[in-house]
Amino acid sequence: QVQLVESGGGLVQPGGSLRLSCAASGSGFSIYAMGWYRQAPGKQRDLVSRITSGGSTNVADSVKGRFTISRDNAKNTVYLQMNSLKPEDTAVYYCNADPSTFAKARMGFTEVWGQGTLVTVSS
Description:
By secondary structure, the protein is mainly beta. The chain contains 1 helix and 11 strands. The chain has one helix spanning 101-107, and strands at 2-7, 10-12, 18-26, 32-39, 46-51, 57-59, 67-72, 77-82, 91-99, 112-113, 117-121. Strands 2, 4, 5, 6, 9, 10 and 11 form a 7-stranded mixed sheet that branches. A 4-stranded antiparallel sheet has the order 1-3-8-7, with no helix packed on it. The longest helix is centred in the last third of the chain and has 7 residues, at 101-107. It is elongated. The N and C termini lie far apart (40 Å).
């Protein structure tokens, strides 16, 4: 099981860039699929991007071509590179760790969330 801490949020102008980091402590990072979600005030939490333990990625249509997810298993860290930021990207961004079916069934691992980091896109 892991614990997650996000960092890198802040205030950025439209069109700017920001890189979020999610550092995992504990054990088992490499067997988790990792995801970034975001939640604006009064809105639901939505998936932004996800990367599997094997390195396959997907991104939401709203950020396709602008955001890139990556992971460094040696550093137990997942990143979200955000470019061409828009005001509608403003939200609290959460890191998520989703264990494999094997890890859930055989090791009792469960889904884990970080505390979130605020990204504000405004001029």
